[in-house]
Amino acid sequence: MKPAAFEYHAPRTVEEALSLLHEHQDEAKVLAGGQSLVPAMNFRLARPAVLVDIAHVPDLDRIEATDPGGVTIGARVRHLDLEHNTIAGPLGSLIASTGRWVGHYPIRVRGTFGGSLAHADPAAEWCALACALDAEVHCRSASSERTVGAGDFFEQMAFTTCLEPDELLVGVRLPRLSDSCGVGMAEFARRWGDFAIVLAVTAVERDGDSITGARIALGGVAGGPVRALNAEAVLNGGPATAETVAAAAAAAADEVDPTGDIHGSADYRRDLVRTMVTRALDQALA
Amino acid sequence: MSQERVELTLTVNGERHDVRVEPRKTLADTLREDCGLTGTHLGCEHGVCGACTVLVDDEPVRSCLMFAVQCGSQAIRTVEGLADGDRLHPIQQAFWEHHGLQCGFCTPGFLMLATSVLESRPDIGDEELREVLASNLCRCTGYQNIITSVHAARDQMRS
Question: What ipTM did this prediction achieve?
């Protein structure tokens, strides 16, 4: 048998799940789709003594409209359901186009949105999307409840979030994007379905030909998802032209500080940032 | 360290299997060792190769990344459930006719993946089908004959 032995719990309510996490603290891990946790367990990189399976906790699988156009995505909404979401407008389009890049089809059948955020792979698509849109992450423990902005949720260290051992990510709120907001998502990986080497997620609000609010998040260039703030500043107030896009992409490539690894050198990643930002912005401004 | 086993009832290919397994036993190992269904193959055992793909409530799942205790009342389908007696399922027949396999190790996974997608989306286009089939690894065929086989099965199942 590949994984180390563990005690398995399948709570039927959020309260029951939280009480198990409170009891077992960092001995426990939350199991949702298992598409990241179980490989780590099979390698014995992760050896939780207790698994709290949230598959039967009601309501966590729902996508709910909040204020007009915004949504709250339950912790165990699957990648596949987001890829085929029915959320209206640019937000729905951005979620769908991002979702299709997550892993392979069978991974998307099981893997979850909340699981991806809690796992916090620096090259994960959903983490970059959450970062781009300033998502609000709802966390609960047996004794407290808090909402954390994506900027504070992800620590700038791979696979690290602000979640306490006894906390459960219960849902994530994504804000409304206006009907005229342009969105884009571009990713480069060596093989279809792999984690990104570099990816860019963008949402651009416009007033006529003038850019009024640009958001760009990057994955694969740091310990967590990062905003390309200098590139956003280049876009904001500028005309929606190819020249502005080129200047923003150059700014993004300039402001990141990636480290090289077996998948690509730092310079290569920097070059990819320029290309991915250009592609994502071209989609957003098309 | 071994651990207390739990009693489960799995429904595999419409048949009930009562098993006693440790919680850490994957669905793949349970199917092979406790249900005696060795058609499901294990390759990488960490969710990369897709050889162990089975259907859970008709959706493709990597059975090395799911513990048997997670299954509950869901309906599991494995490669053993495809043929109808001596009559091969159209997807199996297509693999036979178009040389969709050489060593056969990855074949059960590809068959289940293809079955799932062709059942749920009989009109899926060539490009999307390629994307879906890219989920699994094959180390012999170079994939082209697998793609040809699934195209043939799609056309056969539609007609």
Answer: 0.94
